[in-house]
Amino acid sequence: MEAAVRPGCPRGTGGTGGAGDCGCSGRPGRAPRPPNPQCPCRRSRPRPRGTARPRTGRAAAALVLTGLLAAACGPSGERGPVPDPSPDDRNAAPDEVPGSGDLLSVPARALAARAERLRRAPAARPAVARRWGLRSAPLSPPPPPVVKPVLTTPEALRRGPHRPADGLPHVITRVPVDDRVIFLTIDDGADKDPRLLRMVRELNVPVSAFLTHSLAREDYGYFRRLRDLGAGMQNHTLTHPYLPALPYEKQRREICAQQDNLERETGVRPTMFRPPFGGYDRATLRAAASCGIEVVPLWSQEVFPGRTEYRRGALDGRFHPGDIVLTHFRGPAHWKGDMRDVLRRVLDQATEEGFAVALLEDYVGGS
Question: What is the pTM of this model?
């Protein structure tokens, strides 16, 4: 009986599919034959046991990303239930991927972490939403516009003439879009709840932080972690004063000095500024323009743990396309609740009304 020839090995070279095929390996109890140079199935010499090719930086990142993509692309029927992350996983830094260790550089870890969050998002989103007490999974925003909307300052928000030649930033309460998106903005920086970071990370909630130096300075690291989750970093003055009560030079210092602080502490020089209490005059707008500010976003709704206040043309108790929503970095010391309650309230209402939360910086500023 003729032995089966191993696929890929020419006849006459020992390619029988058994030991010693093509001279690539030996029979049991015999020394290996020298490799046959004509054998297409020959292998390179194996690496000694206990050694491995070192992988760092891009190579290791590629391995991590390949594994994540392979897991993401597998048949949905093969996926088991989404496990509830352990407390250690939930408290991990946002650029941390389990198992990556020290193999990856900081940029590679950030890239791998983002891929991990995206991989988990579709399957895990309903389970994560339930864990955070949401009625249903939040809607995902559409891709950012290729061209940002053209802004105009409504007549009621102007402080004197608002001609293009004046170079004043636009004042808005809503972004002119048709997409069913709203924008969540968080002011000041007083409360720094790590649970907010976890909730933003696990639910992939886009937020923009408008920071006041006197309240944020004790722990800018908290806001750097928020920035690493994709949040925008914007200006809310040095000390949170009512700006119209100040002369121009003091207003300018409140804005420009905080621009410098935020650039130093977060690596971002803001293009947006929100005046404390929503108070501003023409001098405020001139000072903001001199500091590089392009847009002054006010708000249409302000959200608290137990209620939502509707303002400036949003008095029907509903969201509208492009609404800018305001809340604050506050907790039980100020409210009967905390930031998780605020996010739940915003996300539940937005989802029920068919809205997604999008990132304000994707639509305005940064021209």
Answer: 0.69
